[in-house]
């Protein structure tokens, strides 16, 4: 068995709605690319995957379609997901690896058994030797270094592209978890709708994402921001440029933030009393790309009364957790599966 391990490079995959990250055992995070595949419409032949494919979103000619096969944290297009997984597995495997890799895949806590099987089968067909599925919030908690093996509560909120995962963890197990299908994609959609309603301006998802990243906030800023937005006037049909403020975007996203704080509130209500007291001291940790929204931690503190912190490396929290599992693969697959 030792010889086989030397000849394969086991990997962990955070198969996200927006981005896919890959962790190679003993090498760390080796890849982070958008979860996008561009294909020819007629032949379904792949044109590009990852970063190259994302640049084609909204800009492809009629014979090419750029597809995001993951929706709301789960597989929406089985075949395209398999193509994407094969790309990441092959790209992360050295030509000197003679044995297919064992793969750890982080999945949302709320997915069904059918969805779990779809992920496993996709990874196997894409070239994995074996597949271990682990819940995203547990992986995020491990990845940010929370003391999950202690008999005290840790609370993690992982805000990804398609889902927000809230979990309370104690003694290396999830005591309570809740997944709500809202995340970075919903933020972009709400911004797109706001620009259309308020200014009759049609913008694409890449522009909405730029607005979110550059001026998005969940709580008042010390100095409010503005951003130049270019799009198409829905009435005149001509290109149009205007400026929007961070206050406007905050208001546009207020429903998204409420849904996130509501699910956090629900988790706190379901938390056993013995563990609730731990959270008063430990607080809540934010992970995932959504954690980077300015002052989201302050909004959560304002609503819950608990301290809330952003993880040091929120974007890599989940994939770093899969890396920990890879280091002790047998334990995690046998004892904790």
Structural summary, described in words:
By secondary structure, the chain is an alpha+beta fold. It has 3 domains: 2-138 and 317-334, ATPase, nucleotide binding domain (Nucleotidyltransferase, domain 5, 2-Layer Sandwich), CATH 3.30.420.40; 145-182 and 254-314, 2-Layer Sandwich (Nucleotidyltransferase, domain 5), CATH 3.30.420; 186-245, Actin, Chain A, domain 4 (Alpha-Beta Complex). Helices cover 39% and strands 27% of the residues. It has 13 helices and 18 strands. It has helices spanning 2-7, 51-54, 78-92, 113-125, 136-143, 184-199, 205-215, 246-252, 254-270, 273-282, 296-304, 317-327, 329-334; strands at 11-15, 19-24, 28-34, 37-40, 46-49, 64-67, 70-71, 74-75, 102-107, 130-135, 154-159, 164-170, 173-180, 201-202, 226-233, 239-245, 284-287, 308-310. The strands form 5 sheets. It has a 5-stranded mixed sheet with strand order 3-2-1-9-10, sandwiched between helices. A 5-stranded mixed sheet has the order 13-12-11-17-18, with helices on both faces. It is flat and about 60 Å long. Residues 1-7 have low confidence and may be disordered.
């Amino acid at each position: 068995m030792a010889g086989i391990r030397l000849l394969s490079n086991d990997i962990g995959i955070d198969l996200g709605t927006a981005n896919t990250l890959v962790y190679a055992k003993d090498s760390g995070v080796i890849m982070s690319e958008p979860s996008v595949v561009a294909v020819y419409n007629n032949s379904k032949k792949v044109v590009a995957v990852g970063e190259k494919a994302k640049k084609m979103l909204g800009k492809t000619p009629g014979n090419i379609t750029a597809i995001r096969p993951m929706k709301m944290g789960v597989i929406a297009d089985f075949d395209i997901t398999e193509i994407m997984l094969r790309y990441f597995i092959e790209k992360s495997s050295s030509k000197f690896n003679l044995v297919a890799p064992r793969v750890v895949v982080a999945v949302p806590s709320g997915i069904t058994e059918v969805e779990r099987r779809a992920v496993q089968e996709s990874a196997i067909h894409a070239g994995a030797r074996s597949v271990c599925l682990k819940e995203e919030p547990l992986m995020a908690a491990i990845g940010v270094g929370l003391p999950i093996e202690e008999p005290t509560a840790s609370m993690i909120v992982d805000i990804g592209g398609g889902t927000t995962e809230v979990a309370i963890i104690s003694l290396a197990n999830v005591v309570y978890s809740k997944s709500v299908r809202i995340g970075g994609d919903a933020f972009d959609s709400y911004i797109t709708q706001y620009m259309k309603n308020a200014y009759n301006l049609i913008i694409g998802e890449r522009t909405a994402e730029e607005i979110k990243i550059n001026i998005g906030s969940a709580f008042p800023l010390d100095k409010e921001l503005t951003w130049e937005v270019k799009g198409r006037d829905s009435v005149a049909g001509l290109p149009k440029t205007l400026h929007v403020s961070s206050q406007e975007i905050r208001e546009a996203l207020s429903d998204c933030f409420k849904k996130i704080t509501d699910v956090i509130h629900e988790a706190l209500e379901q938390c056993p009393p013995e563990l609730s007291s731990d959270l008063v001291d430990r607080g809540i940790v934010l992970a995932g790309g959504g954690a980077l929204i300015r002052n989201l931690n302050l909004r959560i503190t304002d609503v819950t009364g608990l301290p809330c912190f952003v993880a040091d490396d929120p974007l890599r929290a989940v994939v770093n957790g899969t890396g920990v599992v890879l280091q002790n693969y047998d334990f995690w697959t046998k004892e904790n599966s």
